[in-house]
Amino acid sequence: MSELTPRRKAAILCVALGPEGAAKVFKHLPDDVVEKLTVEMVRTHDIPPEQAEEVQREAIESAIARGYIAQGGIRYAREVLTRAVGAQRASEILERLATYIEATPFEFLRLTPPDQIYAFLRGEHPQTTALVIANLPTHDLAAKVMALMPPEEQADIALRIGLMTQTQPDVVKEVARVMQTKLDVVMQAEYSAAGGVGSLADILNKSDRATERNILTHLGESHPDLAEEVRSLLFVFEDLLKLDDRTIQLVLKEVDSKDLALALRGASDDVKERILANMSQRAAETLREEMELMPPQRRRAVEEAQTRVVAVVRRLEDDGAIFIARGAESADEELVL
Predict the structure, then answer these.
(1) Which of 35, 40, 74, 139 satisfies CB 3.0 to 4.6 Å to 11 for a cystine?
(2) Cβ pair 89, 65 in contact under 8 A
(3) Which CATH number fits domain 107-169: 1.10.220.30, 2.60.40.1190, 1.10.3720.10, 1.10.8.60?
(4) Distance of alpha carbon 38 from alpha carbon 30, whole angstroms
(5) CB–CB of 84/60 below 8 Å?
(6) What are the pLDDT tens digits along the chain (337 aa)?
(7) Region of residue 65 (left: phi > 0; alpha: psi -120 to 50; beta: else)
(8) Domains in the chain: boundaries
(9) pLDDT by residue (tens digit) across 298-311?
(10) Which residues make Cβ contacts (< 8 Å) with residue 317, sequence separation at least 6?
(11) Measuring CA to CA, which residue among 193, 325, 134 is closest to residue 336?
């Protein structure tokens, strides 16, 4: 395939597509290209089936690779292609598209939020800003970035774009390289901030009770200090005892009575009494009767009910309806009613 010129490959592809398919391709090509391609097709005779198949496969791979580049940039395309066809084949496909990639140096910004692009451009020289916006992957993205600018800055950048003449490719590539470096630094900072005790606590707060208990049990055996630190940031079912009466009453309004009865089957007497004490006498009696009449339950079912109750607590906290003091919080952070 390497001995075939791009024009020859295009001609073979059009011949393989047939008259109707080739006509559809011609509709999207300039007249001079159609003329040259037609001449090449006339010269194309007796195409070996394996050669036609290889040309078609190459065209499909290139189209797919362009799509991946458009979605997430060259690194995303390489990662996806490597998983699909292996590192060597991925490199061959991307090398084939080198001209396309070089012609779109800002493709890596296609999926970057407009406000983040604008943040990157703050402090840059207006001419640099104009160069970046003029070369963004889509006009829609460029418009969204422009919309974030103050009116006077919009006018200045628009004028610079309008008066911009052809820029040296090396200059565009260098500006793109600097911007990509900035983006990489930001992403690395975000990733380096991930993890740690707080991150683990957030994950466990979203997990079911069985997962939470399993992880904390194993952590307690291998890293007791870490386990205790994580527990101080978690809210588990037994922590209902830590809530004030008003908060418990708000939670009980949101909890399904069947979930509550089932959850209390596995709770300590202190938790049961605290919950019952924050219910009306009639409601408390009804709950006691439901618990007494309830047949034996699997531990998993009880833990799932406790998880649903805790989920209500966490939802109310996320909504700002209640406040839960964590172990690491000081008295200065407590609410004053």
Answers:
(1) 40
(2) no
(3) 1.10.220.30
(4) 12
(5) no
(6) 457 787 888 888 888 878 888 888 788 777 777 888 788 887 777 778 888 888 877 777 766 666 655 555 566 667 777 877 788 877 777 776 665 555 567 877 877 888 888 888 888 899 999 999 988 877 888 999 999 999 889 999 999 998 887 677 778 878 888 887 777 666 555 555 556 777 787 778 777 767 777 888 888 888 888 888 887 777 878 889 889 999 999 999 999 988 999 999 888 899 999 999 999 999 999 999 988 888 888 888 888 888 889 889 888 887 888 887 654 444 344 443 3
(7) alpha
(8) 6-103, 107-169, 235-327
(9) 888 888 888 889 88
(10) 235, 323, 324
(11) 325
Amino acid present at 38: T
Structural tokens at position 162: 């309008």
Q: What is the pTM of this model?
A: 0.38
Same CATH fold, 235-327 and 107-169?
yes
May I ask the CATH class of domain 235-327? mainly alpha
pLDDT value for 68:
56
The CA distance from 32 to 36, in Å, is 6
- Best CA proximity match to 239, nearest among 194, 274, 265: 274
The DSSP symbol for 335 reads -
Q: Is the separation of the CB atoms in 250 and 316 below 8 Å?
A: yes
Residue 212 CB partners (closer than 8 Å, separation 6+) = 204, 234, 236
Do 37 and 10 contact (CB within 8 A), yes or no? yes
**Cα dihedral across residues 196, 201, 206, 207: positive or negative:** positive
14-47 confidence digits (pLDDT tens):
888 788 888 887 887 777 778 887 888 877 777 7
Residues 224, 225, 230, 233, Cα dihedral to 10° = 130
